[in-house]
Amino acid sequence: MDMLSETLLVTLLVIWVLCCVLILFERRIYRNIIYFGIFSLIASLCYLLLGAPDVAMAEAGISVFATIFFIVCIEKSYSRQGGAVREKSESMRRGRWIIKIAVPLVFSAGLFALFVRFMPDIPVNTYLKDQFLARFMTDVGGYNAVTAILLGYRVYDTLFEALILVVSVVAVAHMSWAEELSVPDGRHSEIENSNMAVFTMRIICPIILIFGAYLILNGHVAAGGGFLGGVAISTFFICRYYIYGIYDMPVKKVMRMEELVFIYFTLMAVLFVTLIGANIYLPSDFAEVYQHLYLIIMNTLIGLKVACGFFIIFYRYVTVERIEGELPAEEGGSQA
Amino acid sequence: MLTFFVIVPVLIAVFLFVFSTNKAARVLAIIIQSLFVLATFWLFLQSRHTEFITYVGSYDDVLGIILRTSNTSAVFILLTSVIFLAVSIYSYNEEGVRTFWFLLFILEAVLVGLFLTRDLFNIFVLVEVGTVVVTILIMYYRGRRQMFTGMVYLMLNIVAMQFYLFGIGYIYMLTGAFDVAHVADALAYIDREALVLPYALIMTGMAFKCAIIPLHSFVPKVRLYPAAPSAVVAILSGVQIKTNVYLFLQFHQVFDTFSAQGFFLAVGIITSAIGVFMAMCQTDIKMILAYHTVSQVGLIIIGLFAGTEYSFLGGLFHVISHGVFKTALFLTAGIIFHAYGTRDVYKIRGVMRRMPIVGAVTVAAVLGITGAPFFIGSISKYFISADVHWLVEWSVIIISLGTIISFTKYAGMLFGKPDQDLIGDKPKPDTWRLVPAMALGAMCLLGGVFGQPLVNFLFVNTATIDIMGYAQKALIFFVSVAVGYGIYKYIIAGNKLLKRIGDLDLGFKSACASMGAFFGLIIIMVGVL
Amino acid sequence: MIGALDIFAVALFFISFFGLITSRNIIKTIIFILTMQTSVIMFWLFIGSRTGTIPPIIDVGDIAYMYNLPAYADPLPQALMLTTIIIGICVVAINIIMLNTLFRKYKTTEWSNMAKLARKDHIEKY
Question: Which phi and psi angles does A27 have, rounded to 5°?
Answer without folding.
Answer: -100, -25
